[in-house]
């Protein structure tokens, strides 16, 4: 073999080694208790904000905190009460996840299953035993749990009696929850997230933080005060989690997606930067340990005093997260022009991007936007990333054989996974793992529908709650199994 041929072979080998995901990459799927678990009235569980959020035209009003809904009634259907009943199907579901080859399973804790009212001194043992059983089942299949402590989940008692996260007393109740979870589940759980999509408090405040607003109340001030309380609570979670087990990996979680200016008009470019900062403020505090200058000036203009003490400043500074996790479904486009077409179906207001196709629910499909988002986050924070939600909500219809031929989902995921790999392999982004959202069909958080399906596994249930709850593998089930088995090297649909 000539020297040139040898050099080429070595170069090819080095290229091959760099052009692959880490061998310990965490492949898996993601769910949330309020959309998946069910069992709302079992084992002493209390009522939560997500339980009283109905399906139908009143849903958005409730999620925004303007409906004043505190209980269940006979005129609405509440899809989160039963969801798809993981509570009684967890062994079956985990076996299916293991068959796909999951290395990690992202799930969340229903706060009101551990503390039914939220302010009790002692936890509910039945609730703890349920999650312990789930973690043991995952361990049996060599699947790591990635646990979100609070995923749009707040006990209703904390809302009606304390005002939700507007009240700083919730920090103490959250600390108690964290102490219990970190201590009890130390043998099973190493990966944790503090709050799901913490920035959603600005867009759907009742769903995000149990916030309701009174007539004449300054809603923007209330939302940022509640966000401040959650950010302090998140720092406490990091502190407690590392004290209980120094091996714990604790991350933040944000609803991400790059904001594009609709045009190169300077006003559009600046608006996109401003909208991006609304999201980044939350990660700035959790990853850097302090509020950025632009946030401080915003609060000054609002006349908002956070009441920050030196002790709180030290808490934030001394307890940054270990990694940054995020959801990515779509990029966003914004404009100062009133004639730009509105993008529908998303909690984040914006305009339609004329260069991108959209999903059945109007979400722009932008695989390159995932790579752009990953680069933006890593450039800013230099912390490992974790993609904990990504997927396509679509209308899946089983064929005569009960099979869902979801090639459209495979194509969506192919393109996004390739963009993810490019960010790792070509841009050098350190990425811990990828958990596809709604790896099994569950209730849509935004619409309350079952017909907006994301999973590799079909669940027989419709928007009105009818169905057998039978689980069926879709075509994408075997495709994702192959993706995991090859560590992302084979994305083909064959």
TrEMBL record:
Active site per the UniProt annotation: 389 (nucleophile)
GO biological process: carbohydrate catabolic process
Domain of life: Bacteria
Cellular component GO terms, alphabetical: cytosol
Record-linked Pfam families: Glyco_hydro_1
GO molecular function: beta-glucosidase activity
Keyword line: Glycosidase, Hydrolase
Protein family (similarity comment): Belongs to the glycosyl hydrolase 1 family.
Protein name: 6-phospho-beta-glucosidase
Organism, scientific name: Faecalibaculum rodentium
């Amino acid at each position: 073999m000539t020297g040139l041929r040898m050099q080429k072979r070595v170069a090819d080998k080095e290229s091959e080694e760099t052009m692959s995901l880490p061998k310990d990459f965490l492949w898996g799927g993601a769910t949330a208790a309020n959309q998946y678990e069910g069992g709302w009235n079992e084992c002493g569980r209390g009522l939560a904000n997500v339980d009283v959020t109905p399906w139908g035209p009143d849903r958005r009003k409730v999620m925004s905190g303007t409906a004043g809904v505190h209980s269940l009634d006979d005129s609405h259907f509440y899809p989160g009460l039963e969801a798809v009943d993981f509570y009684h199907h967890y062994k079956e579901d985990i076996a299916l996840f293991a068959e796909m080859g999951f290395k990690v399973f992202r799930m969340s804790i229903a706060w009101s299953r551990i503390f039914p009212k939220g302010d009790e001194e002692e936890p509910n043992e039945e609730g703890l035993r349920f999650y312990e059983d789930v973690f043991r089942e995952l361990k049996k299949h060599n699947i790591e749990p990635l646990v979100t402590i609070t995923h749009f989940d707040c006990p209703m008692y904390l809302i009606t009696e304390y005002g939700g996260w507007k009240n700083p007393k919730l920090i103490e109740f959250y600390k108690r929850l964290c102490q219990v979870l970190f201590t009890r589940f130390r043998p099973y759980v190493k990966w944790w997230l503090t709050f799901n999509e913490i920035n959603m408090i600005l867009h759907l405040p009742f769903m995000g933080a149990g916030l309701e607003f009174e007539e004449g109340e300054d809603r923007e001030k209330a939302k940022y005060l509640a966000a401040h309380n959650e950010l302090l609570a998140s720092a406490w979670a990091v502190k407690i989690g590392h004290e209980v087990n120094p091996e714990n990996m604790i991350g933040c979680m944000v609803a991400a997606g790059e904001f594009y200016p609709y045009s190169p008009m300077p006003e559009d470019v600046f608006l996109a930067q401003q909208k991006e900062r609304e999201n980044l403020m939350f990660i700035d505090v959790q990853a850097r340990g302090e509020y950025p200058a632009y946030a401080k000036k915003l609060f000054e203009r609002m006349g908002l005093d956070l009441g920050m003490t030196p002790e709180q400043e030290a808490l934030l500074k001394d307890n940054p997260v270990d990694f940054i996790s995020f959801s990515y479904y779509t990029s966003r486009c914004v404009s100062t022009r009133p004639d730009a077409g509105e993008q529908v179906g998303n909690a984040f207001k914006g305009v339609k991007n004329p260069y991108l196709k959209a999903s059945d629910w109007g979400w722009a499909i932008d695989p390159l936007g995932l790579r752009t988002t990953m680069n933006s986050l890593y450039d800013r924070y230099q912390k490992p990333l974790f993609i904990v939600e990504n997927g396509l909500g679509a209308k899946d219809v089983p064929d005569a054989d009960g099979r869902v031929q979801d090639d459209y989902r495979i194509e969506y995921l192919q393109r996004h996974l390739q963009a993810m790999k490019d960010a790792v392999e070509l841009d050098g982004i350190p990425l811990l793992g990828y958990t596809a959202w709604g790896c099994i069909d569950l209730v849509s958080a935004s619409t309350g529908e079952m017909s907006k399906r994301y999973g590799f596994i079909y669940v027989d249930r419709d928007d009105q709650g009818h169905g057998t709850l039978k689980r069926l593998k879709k075509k994408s089930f075997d495709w994702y199994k192959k993706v995991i088995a090859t560590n992302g090297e084979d994305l083909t649909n064959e």
